[in-house]
Amino acid sequence: MEINELNPDILSVKPSALRVFDHEISEDPDIVKLTLGEPDFNVPEHIKQAAIASINANQSHYPFYWGIQELRDAASTYYRDKFGYQYTADQIVCTVGATEGLSATFKTLFRPGDGILIPMPAYPVYKAMAGINQLVPIMIDTTDTDCVLTPKQVTDAIAAHPDVTVRGVVITDPSNPTGAVYTEEQLAALVPVFRDNNIWVISDEIYGELTYGVKHYTLSKWLPEQTIIINGLSKSHAMTGWRIGFVFGPAGVIDQIAKAHQFEVTTPTSIVQYAAVEALTHGQNDAAAMRKIYEQRRDYLTQSLDKLGMTYVAPKGAFYIFTKIPEQCEQDSFTFARHLAKTYHVGLMPGAPFGDPQALRISYASSNENLHAAVDALTKELARVGSLAK
Ligand SMILES: Cc1ncc(COP(=O)(O)O)c(C=O)c1O
């Protein structure tokens, strides 16, 4: 048996560069990591108690593959109240984290050879999923427009690929890795171009509850018939390891996504589904305290980077800052990040996997102490190369 006889779409996709880099630097026992997008908060107590109660109540049987009715009802109400989603329980599938929701959606919406627009910088999973599904990823550089996709960029990208049928786009709002957040006007402006070109919008709103001083809007408000929303509790309720997400979509297509999901995973763990009901019925304010702390950390980091003369995309949501590597420093993001890890025991994520090889992503889902260590390391490095702002 030869490895190269295996599925070429899997062979050609690389393991997540983010995980590989994080793993690599984790060998250092003293490393301070601001690498992964992992809330440093515990799951709220009432959700933990609900999970324990679910175990004790022997809720251990196969749930319905779409997810239990109570959870889909709760998700319908919760996200309507939070963001104005208009989806009934039979338009919602409960998934194993947002990731499985993305995977089932990619698999269902597209045919091999279809083009998918990915505004850059982007969460690298989209490109990997495009590859696994034999799609043609069309990367659109949005750095000139504050990392917000514009209608002109969409029409230009379509015109530049006359041989590709563009059938999808991913909008990540708020964005990983930049923290950019679309305004209502910016989203509404995109609707005609998506409608006229029959483009499915995969709207990844996993950071929707984490915005600072601005409101989160959903494209589904204007284009529900062509939008699939991905959301979940990983970030809002610090439940990354529990693996629970949701896909919202129009009747008809959501039934097809549910099938793709069923044959991949059946359904998320029963106990987690019951705990998630608690999160959505009594945890409407769980994110508020975390959001406040994230905002303070964001302010600390932006002020610190300003003092160092480092430039970045203004972060209004999620918990990341995407900053350019200062000119005087080593410009290759992997080499520079490795240097910071080795010299100062501080792990920052190289920007290359997100589409900018001369940038770093700093996650502030990490303690103040860790943030101070990161700023300290950058300060020392800039002093070393003689590039400290006057
Ligand atoms: C933009 C974005 N979408 C989806 C995910 C995956 O979420 P989950 O852990 O629920 O699968 C992440 C995780 O970092 C993310 O940043």
From TrEMBL:
Record-given protein name: Aminotransferase
Q: Which CDD domains match?
A: AAT_like
Give yes or no: UniProt keyword Isomerase. Answer: no
One of the GO biological process terms: amino acid metabolic process
Keywords for this entry? Aminotransferase, Pyridoxal phosphate, Transferase
The protein's required cofactor(s) are namely: pyridoxal 5'-phosphate
Domain of life of the native organism: Bacteria
Which organism does this sequence originate in? Secundilactobacillus silagincola
